[in-house]
């Protein structure tokens, strides 16, 4: 190759910023330009509203798939400020819609991050062919409109308003996305996860795309993960084992719900600060440590395992087990850019202790029930 063809210096670097960067490389911000990316837009648009509910400044959020292929996310919270109205209470709505990651909440246990990227409303705006924001605040209704992230005029008053709240209505840009067809069921599943992990949430999803067959689902689980497991079929025992405990050592809380069911496979779902940790991590390892310690300890205490009998294998302990393991930490440490594995070291010992103590108490409280569970485990294949 010639010297000219291999020369590379600062003059060859192209710096993209803001809206231009998002539209040029959308996958870097939302994961894909397929269905997954579409759903991520909805999650990002709803994140602020959901956090307001957790903070006690809103009571519910309504998410609607509209007949024209758009999405509307509406809440009854304190409402974002409109800079054009002279508000100085934090970043204005205009700023949040045009500046990347502006106003993103901290990553602590009291904040809600529903996606892997934390990119904020500006990316939703940049990747939408049109976006309209409606704000009800201080007795006035304001309307802001954008096209592909660029404002269409200035924020406008559109009359008086009762109460307060913010509504965002956007249409994903068909110049960006390979499909603009949302999966209602997939969205319901992800928001269902968030609702059972955060019992304060009150979410309604509506699908108005087919006027002849509209659908609506209301998601609220006051019992948290225990409510979720109570819906599982074929339980081996009627009650769900569940608890929540705080540990200063791990600077956070652990909540666990588990139940043995009459099927062979293991179904364990783990979460850290409401994010699915599909690759596990220290909280899931701690759960398995505590599970094994409680079951082996009780089995030997009751002489269901003799002195020379080997411990149950992980495959036996997991046979028919359904569990949710959720930790909420002040300073979560994730391994990898997708935040799919938790790395906080103190978490493992704390979760193990909590699971061991609560599970062995449950086993001792009803020996007949405990014997049935252990008999099921002992009959499962060892591999």
What does this structure look like?
Residues 12-16 have low confidence and may be disordered. The longest helix has 21 residues, at 345-365. The protein contains 12 helices and 14 strands. Strand 8 and strand 9 (215-219) form a beta hairpin. The chain has helices at 3-6, 18-24, 27-30, 35-54, 93-96, 121-126, 184-197, 225-230, 282-301, 314-318, 345-365, 367-379; strands at residues 61-65, 71-75, 128-137, 140-147, 150-151, 156-160, 165-172, 203-207, 215-219, 241-247, 252-260, 267-272, 275-276, 321-329. Strands 1, 2, 3, 4, 5, 6, 7, 8 and 9 form a 9-stranded mixed beta sheet that branches. Helix 9 (282-301) runs parallel beside helix 11 (345-365) and helix 11 (345-365) packs across helix 12. With 383 residues, it is of the alpha+beta class.
In short:
With 383 residues, this protein is of the alpha+beta class.
List its traits:
383 residues; alpha+beta; 5-stranded mixed β-sheet; 32% helix; 22% strand
Query: What count of helical segments does DSSP give?
Result: 12
N-C termini distance: 57 Å
**Total number of beta strands:** 14
Name the quaternary structure.
single chain
The average pLDDT is 89
> What is the gyration radius calculated from CA atoms?
25 Å
Main sheet record: 9 strands, mixed
Runs in which pLDDT lies below 50 for 5 or more consecutive residues are 12-16
**Helix proportion:** 25-40%
Structural class: alpha+beta
Written as H for each helix and E for each strand, in order along the chain, the element string is HHHHEEHHEEEEEHEEHEEEEHHEHH
Which band does the percent of strand residues land in? 15-25%
């Amino acid at each position: 190759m010639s010297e000219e063809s291999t020369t590379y210096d600062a003059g060859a670097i192209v710096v993209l910023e803001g809206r231009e960067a998002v539209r040029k490389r959308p996958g870097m911000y939302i994961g894909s330009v397929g269905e997954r990316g579409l759903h991520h837009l909805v999650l990002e648009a709803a994140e602020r509203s959901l956090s307001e509910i957790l903070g006690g400044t809103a009571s519910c959020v309504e998410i609607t798939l509209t007949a024209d292929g758009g999405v509307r996310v509406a809440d009854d919270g304190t409402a974002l400020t409109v800079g054009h109205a002279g508000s100085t209470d934090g970043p204005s709505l205009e700023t949040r819609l045009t500046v990347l990651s502006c106003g993103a909440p901290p990553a602590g246990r009291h904040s809600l991050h529903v996606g892997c990227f934390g990119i904020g409303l500006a990316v939703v705006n940049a990747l939408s062919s049109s976006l309209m924001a409606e704000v009800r605040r201080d007795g006035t209704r304001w309307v802001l409109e954008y096209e592909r992230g660029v404002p269409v005029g200035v924020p406008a008053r559109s009359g008086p308003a009762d109460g307060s709240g913010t509504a965002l209505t956007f249409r994903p840009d068909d110049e960006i996305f390979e499909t603009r067809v949302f999966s209602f069921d997939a969205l319901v599943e992800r928001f269902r996860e968030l609702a059972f992990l955060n019992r304060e949430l009150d979410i309604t999803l509506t699908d108005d795309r087919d006027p002849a067959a509209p659908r609506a689902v209301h998601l609220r689980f006051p019992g948290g993960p225990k409510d979720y497991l109570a819906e599982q079929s074929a339980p081996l025992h009627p009650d769900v084992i569940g608890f929540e405990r705080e540990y200063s050592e791990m600077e956070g809380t652990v909540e666990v719900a588990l139940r043995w069911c009459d099927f062979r496979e293991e179904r364990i779902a783990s979460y850290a600060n409401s994010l699915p940790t599909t690759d596990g991590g220290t909280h899931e390892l701690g759960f398995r440590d505590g599970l094994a310690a409680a079951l082996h300890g009780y089995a030997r205490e009751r002489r269901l395992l003799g002195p020379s009998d080997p411990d149950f294998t992980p495959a036996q302990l997991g046979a028919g087990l359904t569990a949710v393991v959720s930790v909420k930490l002040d300073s979560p440490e994730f391994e990898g850019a997708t935040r799919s594995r938790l790395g906080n070291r103190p978490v493992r010992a704390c979760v193990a202790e909590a699971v061991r103590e609560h599970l062995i108490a449950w086993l001792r409280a009803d020996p007949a029930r405990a014997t049935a569970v252990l008999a099921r485990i002992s009959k499962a294949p060892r591999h």
